[in-house]
Please model this.
Amino acid sequence: MMKHTKFALRFLCLVLALTAAVPSALADTDLPYDTYNYDYWEDIVITPAAYVPGGALSGTDYTYQGNPVGAFKTPQDMFVAEDGTIWVADTGNNRIVVLSADMKQAINIIDGFDMDGERQTFNAPYGVCVSENQQIYIADSNNHRIVVLEMDGSLCKIVENPQSEVLEDGFVFTPLKVSVDYADRIYCIAQKMFEGIMVFEAAGNFTGFFGTINVKISLWEKFWRKLATKEERSKQQLFIPTEFTGIDVDDEGFVYASNVDTDGLQAVRRLNPRGQDVIRKGPSQNLGGDLWGDDTHTYSGPSRIVDVVYRGYGIYSLLDSKRGRVFTYDHEGNLLYIFGGLGTQTGTFNTPVAIEHSGNTLMVLDAYRATILLFNATEYGQLINDAVALRYSGDEEKAVEKWAQVLLLNENDELANSGIGKAYLTAGDNEQAMKYLKRGMNRAYYSVAYKRYRNEMIKDNLQYILSGVLVLIIAVIVVLKIRKNKKHGAKGAEA
Amino acid sequence: MKEQFSRDKWKQLFYTVSHPSDGYYWIRHQDRGSVGIALLLVVLFSLSFSMNRAYASFIVNDVNPRAVNSLTEMFGVVLLFLILCVSNWSVTCLMNGEGRLKDIVIAVGYALFPIIVTMVLATIASQFLAENEEAFYSIILIIGLGYGAIMMLIGIMQVHNYTLGKTLITLFLTLLALFIIIFLGLLMVDLISKVYNFGHSIYTELIFRT
Model:
């Protein structure tokens, strides 16, 4: 009787556990996209979802001062300020819309400002940014100026018509994206400006270019240009550097800048104050989004990275408009997870143009749909974020706990395996360390673990090894002696 | 069949490995070699090659285990071996070579022996190596490959009764012939598939029209 009730109880527990587990297991398969990553061999590995769609924000959801805000029209940029407020450059409607941090209401609409007693409006503002000093920077593109406003909407300054010897005559300044660092230096991506990011000092004077990408001309192309006549050369494609597409400034004042790389090798740069690229590349030496874009369908070719967001603790995400993917890297250049896709379902993009983050929510602005799509971290994504953040701050011990949990969800995660392997190595368990480091494809540390393991083995079994060698030597001598004797014996018999 | 793998034939293999010049001479002039053993060595070579790719230790091995397929590798090795022998034969025929196809097969096949042995040895040794010690692994492999190459050179020289210079020239021509054979092979496959596709499309057209 007792046995039966016990069995029934267990069965009940099992059923409960199953019913509890099933919905969450099914949730991933309902996503309109796959979450994946590349392993050491550059093969695609599908992983559990790191981020799931968490709704969308559209202009029609909001009212401001009793009037409906109305749908956005081809919005081009988005910025999340320090206090969490969301600033949308509603390009087609010539205005800036500000949403509250909880995304529940519109708290401001800026459609113009007063200058010298006159009302001025915007013309297709492409970019918006809020500085640490609470000033609003607006790239008023078709008015060819950057407008700087105070929080109350009054004009602070206007940056326009930059003058410099390095600028060509007749250059028309059309700012597209702006970003500001702690010293109020303005970083601006301008249309048809291939020399790099334009930098303006706090007063608004143009000081020079920043992070110029050098043109790469192969020996082969040089050879052909030598052969070509002047006329032919003039008809050839110009060798121009790639354009920058998005900027973000991190806590230390380093500038993350994304660019379109037609080779698909490096689509993001981390520029130090002198404009040098100091980004770190991971084991694949690739920061260009998808490693394999050579399919033969419409969406083939390398990823087209249109924006970058720095998310703290060395983590940054890139937005690809070609296949609608979001790539997330850590400070060492390791790919953490890739998700997203183009389409018409909820949670997919049509024309993604800007990416931002607010807490653990990633936001992607879609220009065509005129909505902001939200993505919330799943347990898996959150664990990876936490582990990477802990490692970035140097707390390896706590990171290992997170990595162990990551492994429960995805046994193949190389970073997690590697992290746990390192922990075992420090703890002195060389055999376990070898196992995990091998799974993590970490040769350097595996070798260290193996060396220690080998020394241990030799030390423990020294007596057996030595006696084995001794026995072997004796055996060889004996065999040789016997053979000699036999030969002698045979010869003796013959004689 | 039994004769191919007789005790004397095996002995001759080991003799040839230790005394290549002499060994190959007797293989040519007294039929002491065995085509069976040579082909067996080719198969063993492809196996040891696959084994090395799949089982050499993690530290020295940068081959994606998912890319190792011993069957297709064996197919490739055997095919390459046959093309090499045939192209060498066709070149030496025109250049006063004395060797028969049989001798060439044996000369090349036997030369694989040291490579097989060192490949297996290196794979085993790699299990006991850590980083910065890969040199041992590659030295074993290089010795095997070098010895194999020397054996093959001597073998070709002996079976055709060539001087060293002439051997090198014929080897270069052999390489050219090898590429020509591969090129013709690919051309033929391509043309045949075109003819097949033509026939196939006519067939489908007829099927759909009627």
Q: What stands out?
A: The two ends of chain B are 57 Å apart (CA to CA). Chain B has one domain: 3-209.
